[in-house]
Amino acid sequence: MDLLSLWEKMLANLKQVLPKEIFTNWFEGNIIPYSYSEEENLLILDTMTNFLRDYVSKKYTDILETVAQDAIGRPTRVQLITSQEKKPAGESQSEAVAETITLPSKPAATPAPTETVVPDTHSVPSGQTEWVQPELPISDDNTAPMPIVKEAVPVKPDETPYNNNLNKDYTFDNFIVGNSNRVATAVAKSIAAAPAQKWNPFYIYGGSGLGKTHLMHAIGHELLKNFPNMRLLCITSEDFVNEFIQCIQDKNTESFRRRYRNVDVLFVDDIQFLGRGDKESSKEEFFHTFNKLYQDKKQMVFTSDRPPRDIKKLEERLRSRFENGMVTQIEPPDLETRTAILRAWAEKENITCDLDALNYIAANVSENIRKLHGAFIRVLLEASQSKSNVTLPLVKHAIHYITDAQDEKKYITIDEITTYICQHYNINYKELMGKKKTKDIALPRQIAMYMCRELTGNTYPHIGTAFNGRDHTTVMHACSQIRKKIDKDSHFKEHLEKMMNEIRGVDN
User: Fold this and answer.
1) Is 29 among the annotated ligand-binding positions?
2) Where in the numbering of this chain does the Chromosomal replication initiator DnaA C-terminal domain appear (predicted)?
3) Is 213 labelled a binding residue?
4) Is 59 annotated as a binding residue?
5) Which of 34, 38, 67, 141 is least surrounded by CB atoms within 10 angstroms?
């Protein structure tokens, strides 16, 4: 298990055992995995502030170590740091960072200058002021000094004003956080609070329609809210290439260089296209632009459909620079996240939706968020035409074009699983839900809980409620026991997989 997968698994368990407010305010988006030493059984987590580090260390270290042990399978110490502090004396500096996350050492911070001199080549749109990047501390409060600004400089007649091209709907408020994007979101919020301090460049990759562009634009909106005078440029790699080619034809490459190399933040969407074709001159130009911005400590964010190592025609010198920053993946959202997204959309549209109806959509549309939104719009249209609420029968009819195309993908319920387990092990429902703990009852009960988690995607509390109001920790323990049994007993694993396949084949 790599570092990101480990932390995502721990967060999923923390969400089940902590109150929602505690999880949201202290853990979700505020803590990032830093390193894990297998030799020392030591997991180091990076916190946003010293106050957060001290508070979580004091109150929640025991819980963190418990969920770490459950995720890793052996006792694990957990230590919290802030990335700007040095590790305590005597602590090992060894790290086992996952391939998908590269944490460069941070240079020592220097105090913000009392006066900043800006080269005359800088130009910004008329009516705006120029933002100059000092060393921005990640403060424990809201009293951090704002960056120094200089009086507005008129834009030159032959230069294009900065147009950030940000989508107004792509904000953090509209972005649903789940296990698939939690680490990427945490890094994005850290950048929005203090650009070019820890994660530069920030490289986000994943399949189409998973929210990479949304998250990048959300960083931009938050940066402009925190630092209104920033020169922020958001483009696609194709835009960069086309604009450079046009400037060559117009014999105006110097204007192009001033425009791109004097920005404070550069966002490039679909960076993988930079590796295509024979546009060597544009690749060379981008390389020098990257170096200039990095040298000047300007924030860069890139999105791609694949990690840097998989862009075959990308120059090695650029690939290594991308990998020297923060590289993180956004994966397809899990069932719980898809359901949360649908709920948010329903609330925004002020539409009453049955939970079973939303669960059915989420279970049958799992590829990406764009397809999920298309299915949701189709359901709204059906509800509008029939002038009814969104119910399960309505949803089944509305998105039958999806379920028909995928051979009626199975939507599995907890009741189906418990019924199957009772029949398979020849026990009655009352015994399965009761308190009897003999092996002939306890093992089928644990298997049923494990299947409910794996096949339905329901949360631990929801499953516990379905099993006669049991606590979510009981469900977590049951799932952990079954996973251990799977690892140790290959015959049990085969038998379990056979049962789960039989359940997947049950007709609605």
Assistant:
1) no
2) 413-482
3) yes
4) no
5) 141
